[in-house]
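One record is kept unedited as follows:
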Amino acid sequence: MRRIFLAVVIALVMSGCQSTSKSTKDEDKAYISNELEITLAELANKAVQSKQIMLAHQSAMARLNPELQHYKPVLDVPDGLGKVIPVRTFYGDALEPLNLIAKLTGYKLKVKGAQSNTETLWVSIRESERSAIDLIDDIAGQIDKRKVDIHVWATPNETMKGVILVSYDGGM
């Protein structure tokens, strides 16, 4: 009988020890995760502050750099497309401003590929005075997602300075 009693007491003691060790581990995990969350929040705030400082520094350096204000990339502009064209605010079919640009610059507008009868290539242009090549680039960027490309090349001859090709099949 003593042996059974002793075995039961040992079993109870062991089960009690086992349950207390779990609670301390859970408390340790909670403490560690709370500390970790606080540390991560502090580091995130410091990262945001350092990014703001870096952007302010870059902005100040850009304002102080005299060469940056006069920098313009040199583009290979086809003959006649450097002409400045005044444009009113426009929202409509892309072929309308391209046709106007072609007339004003002496280029011929050509359309290649099958355009569906219901498909309109909508573009939005703000009122401005920009070069013809800039306007063409803006229009090309807006209709590019519809797999329509605009290609421009100069072909100097007696009737026209070049060609503006609108390609509906996405290629030349």
About this structure: The helical segments are 2-64, 66-69, 95-105, 132-143. The chain has a mean pLDDT of 80. The chain has four helices and seven strands.
